[in-house]
Amino acid sequence: VCSSTWLKFCMDVHRYVVFCLLIFGVSLPVIALFICVSLCISVGACLGTDCTNVNVLPSLSAAVSDEQPQRSIWLTFLFTSSAVRLIFLRTVWDIYLHIFQKCLKTDLSSVIRFQFTVAILEVISLNLMGLFPSARLYGKHAPDS
């Protein structure tokens, strides 16, 4: 027999776990960026330019392009983040609907639907950009052999 206190406790634990997973998931690209930029700076390979200038900080594309282990770290963190965001998409959708209907006393489902469509397009675009870096597609950007 389930008591209401036990059920409430289980729901609270579930919410906490989902919240932690979501925060972890959306933080992964930022963490990967810091790791990749740090590795890039420590090696110094991605700070040079075609002209005589030397960059203090590398661009994102230089930090995660074809250098290993940066590329593997970036793709692993990016795909994991995308999976977490897509797995919990419906949960976050329900949370948004509940919060906005409770606080604003109005139906904003069309606005939320638009925001989620943009978020899904962002995830897909970011994954495609991660899979196909400019250094592989354009000889002009490729490092000299």
Automatic annotation (TrEMBL):
Keywords: Golgi apparatus, GPI-anchor biosynthesis, Membrane, Transmembrane, Transmembrane helix
This protein's GO CC annotations: endoplasmic reticulum membrane; Golgi membrane
Cellular compartment(s): Golgi apparatus membrane
Keyword RNA-binding: no
GO biological process, one term: GPI anchor biosynthetic process
Domain CWH43-like N-terminal residues, every copy: 21-141
Transmembrane domains' residue ranges: 16-45, 73-93, 114-135
Membrane topology, as annotated: Multi-pass membrane protein
Keyword rRNA processing annotated: no
Family of this protein: Belongs to the PGAP2 family.
Protein name per Swiss-Prot or TrEMBL: CWH43-like N-terminal domain-containing protein
Species whose genome carries this gene: Paragonimus westermani
